[in-house]
Amino acid sequence: MPEDRMMPNDALRLLFFSIEEVMGKDGMKAALRGAKLEQYIDNYPPKNLSLDVRFSEYAHTEQAVEDFYGPRGAKAMLLRVGRATFNYGMKEQSAVLGLAGQALKLMPLPMTSKMKLLLEQMVAAANKTVNQPTRLEEDADSFTMIVDFCMCQFRPKHQSPCCYVTVGALTEAMRWLTDKTFAIQELTCMNLGADCCRYRIPKTPE
Ligand SMILES: [Zn+2]
Questions:
Q1: Cβ–Cβ under 8 Å, residues 191 and 55
Q2: Ligand 1 centre and the CA of 133: distance in Å?
Q3: Structure confidence at residue 103 (pLDDT)
Q4: In whole angstroms, what separates CA 8 from the centre of its chain?
Q5: Could you give the domains of the chain?
Q6: Among 16, 19, 188, 202, which has the minimal tally of Cβ within 10 Å of its Cβ?
Q7: Chain CA centroid to CA 10, Å
Q8: Ligand 1 center to residue 190 CA distance, Å?
Q9: Residue 181 Cα, ligand 1 centroid: separation in angstroms?
Q10: CA of 42 to the centre of ligand 1 (A)
C-alpha cells in the first residue's frame, strides 16, 4: 500500500454530504461506523481547503458504502453518490470543484469544446485543490482523464475497476453541461495494480 496522502477538508465533507443524500442520515452514520471513522459522526470536516484529512479516510468511507450494500448493489449506489458529489458541489459552490459553473454552461461553443473546458477545470481543481495528480488526454473520439494517485489504492482488492464515485461525478458533470448522457468507462484502475486510474469520456453521447 502506498504512503497516505492529505486532502482538503471540503473534499471529504462533500463525500459525506453526498452519501447522506443517497443513504440518509442514519445510513451515513452506519457507513462512518463501518469505516471506523466515528469521530466524524455529527462532526463533518469544515468547509475549507486545509489539508487535514486523508485519502485513506475517503477510501474507507467509499468501501463502507460498498460493504453496506454488498458488491451487487454497491455499484449503483456509488454511482449515485458520485453524481451527488458533482451536484452538491455545484449547488454548494464547493471550494473543491472551483468551477466557473453557469458561465461555462452558457458559452456559445460546440459541445465538445465545452466538455473539454469543463474537464480541464475539473483536472485543474484536482491538482491544485484536491492534491490529487490528474491529467487530461484527448483523441479524435474521446477524452481520457488520468488520475495518477487514487484513493482506491487504500481499498481491498477488487475484481474490476472500482472508482464508481468518479465515474458518477464525470457522468453527472457531462450531463449537467450538455443535457446528454455519456457512457463513461473506467479503463484501468490502480486498485487492480494499474499505474493510474483512466476514465474514457466519449465525445458522442449515448
Ligand atoms: Zn481509482
A1: no
A2: 12
A3: 77
A4: 14
A5: 6-202 (3.90.1520.10)
A6: 202
A7: 13
A8: 5
A9: 22
A10: 28
Alpha carbon of 165 to ligand 1 centroid (Å): 9
Using DSSP bridges, classify how beta strands 53-54 and 197-202 pair: parallel, antiparallel or unpaired: unpaired
Residue 101 confidence class, pLDDT cut points 50, 70, 90: low
Q: Which residue has the cell 487530461?
A: 136
Cα–ligand 1 centroid distance for 189 (angstroms): 5
Burial of 3 (0-12, 13-18, 19+ CB in 10 A): exposed
Give the three-class secondary structure for 159. Answer: coil
Sheet holding 134-138, edge to edge: 134-138, 142-147, 197-202, 185-188
Q: Which residue has the cell 449506489?
A: 77
3-class DSSP state of 41: coil
What pTM value is reported for the model? 0.95
Cell numbers standing for residue 36: 471506523
